[in-house]
Amino acid sequence: MIETSASGKIILFGEHAVVYGIPAIAVPVSSLRAYVKCSPSDKPFSITAVDLGNQVIEISQDNLKSDSPLHKSIDLILDYFNQKPPNVQITIKSNIPIASGLGSGAAVSAALGKALAEVLNKSIELEDLNRLVFEVEKIHHGTPSGIDNTVVVYERPVYYIKGEKLEYLDIVNPFHLVVADTGKTALTHEAVGDVRKLYEKNPDNIKRIFDQIGIIVNQAMTCMNTGESQQLGKLMTENHKHLQALTVSSVELNRLVAAALDAGALGAKLSGGGRGGNMIALAEESTLKEIKEALKQAGAKNVFDTLVK
Ligand code: PMV
User: 129 FRET partner, CA 20 to 30 A, in 52, 77, 163, 256?
Assistant: First the structure.
């Protein structure tokens, strides 16, 4: 039996603007993972998706070209190794909430890629795996920047600029993030598409917002290098305001951001595609409990904290 996994991710700064070449910062969340198990079998290749009600998906040479993300992941990896579907039964299980900005799709593809490489007794460089997962991300996102697959595949904090050499990030002072789910799923490609329309209608104004987000991202990078958490928090809240101006926040996200700030968070913002999904709040150890409680009171469906290091 072969078992692999890949982590979820949180975008700390720069979502949406990153699609237009502005830098962004994202970190992996090692406690949120997609797990893939492969067992040899004499039955045809199939995948059981535990989190989709134990749905069984048959995979054969004939349906590999279907454009579902699972088929695409498998097709790309088999094609990469020039192999036919092997006789295995795959089980996918994940504790990463789906469609809520935490990288569940990228994590499933990355874990599948690693598992199939092992089944075929081959190895794959992370750079190549990243390229394949990026291809699958296009099904989820339309025109992804590539940040999600990159942070998930390398499983390290990154300072990411589309098309440029990857920079890893050193976090000098680990910090606590509270992550709260609005309970609403939202399609990233719709939010990305709406920002595109805004940009086409009013390029100068929207570009100005992107540039301001870029300044925030670079200042945040400095704060992370020096451990200035008060300032880091302020930058998060500022970034959220720009995301509101891009119309990708929502009533629920704004309510959670306000609740976190009222409860003493150093900063708060939506994270990822927006319109639903998750928000994040920067918390000191002493206020962690209070912030989590306030977020639940404000209607968050799921709240957890993670130490970013
Ligand atoms: O919704 P998520 O977490 O998958 O994040 C998407 C991030 C965007 O910047 C909105 C899009 C992208 O491709 O970078």
Answer: 52
